[in-house]
Amino acid sequence: MKNTFLLVVAALLLSCSNDEGGLPPLPAATQTGERTFGCLVDGVAFIHDSNVINCYYQYVDGEYYFGIKGDNYDNNPVGIDLGTSMREIAEGETYQLRGYTNGNAWGSVFFQTSPTNGMSANTSEQMSGELTITRLDFSENIVSGSFWFNVTHPTTGETVEITQGRFDTFFTE
User: Fold this and answer.
1) Rounded distance, CA 167 to CA 68, Å?
2) 15-35 pLDDT, tens digit each
3) Distance of CA 127 to the CA centre of its chain
4) DSSP secondary structure letters along 118-159
5) What is the rounded distance in angstroms from the CA atom of residue 172 to the CA atom of residue 62?
6) Quick check: helix, strand or coil at residue 106?
7) What does the DSSP 8-state code read for residue 77?
């Protein structure tokens, strides 16, 4: 009986041994172009579900634009975006995620609200966060970073917390 009890306790400890309390682990915070994107959404792992990540850093008409999007169509939300509009980014810098306007950095979450419709929730002056660029390599076109932000759910009005965000991928110019 004592051995059975010890086996049950050991099995329970092993099943909850990762840092996210039994959830799938987030991708490692790498800086080598691993094509990863992940975060926690209200404590639940959101991991990009494809080897292709839409990411760009472009100079257009005298202005810089950065964008990255992680998708996971098995989750709700189904997409998480980060970007800048008319704003240059640099390695080692942290940007406040605010409204989706020129000169700002922003975060956005796309929720599926029905089988054929969805709605976005964006950062704002009231619901903000941070984006940190940990690597920006123009010779290899690699961008890596970390992020967190909050948004208001578009249908429930509740605060949605995006935490422990990280990405490591290639960008197009």
Assistant:
1) 9
2) 443 444 455 689 999 999 999
3) 16
4) EEEEE--SSS-EEEEEEEEETTTTEEEEEEEEEEE-TTT--E
5) 17
6) strand
7) S
